[in-house]
Write a structure and sequence with these properties.
Length: 106
């Protein structure tokens, strides 16, 4: 294809690149909260301290729960209750010494 001469080309139509807005609307701070998404540094630090405090409480309570569960498991094991409960459900047979103790009490 041949390149046409610049004088034979039609001028391009005008295009609006920006939208005109009155400066009074742009500078009026009462309509928009310009800094509504900003969080003060002190608030960020306070939130961080709060989050650490909550995490520490959760960790402490989880450790207490785990310790309590372990103590309970040991005490139940000492009383042979887990084996007894499982035997009643039909999922487990009683150890011989426990079975003899149970049958001997009748």
């Amino acid at each position: 294809m041949r390149v046409p001469a610049a004088s034979s080309l039609t001028s391009l139509p005008a295009a609006s690149l920006v939208k005109p807005v009155p400066m009074a609307d742009v500078l009026d701070a009462s309509k928009d909260k310009l800094f509504s998404t900003l969080v003060p540094d002190s608030s960020t630090k306070t939130l961080s301290k709060y989050t650490e405090m909550v995490d520490d409480i959760i960790r402490t309570q989880a450790e207490k729960l785990q310790q309590g569960s372990e103590i309970t498991r040991v005490k139940l094991r000492e009383m042979d209750l887990p084996d007894s409960i499982l035997a009643l459900e039909g999922n487990f047979s009683l150890p011989l010494d426990l079975k003899e103790d149970v049958e001997g009490r009748d």
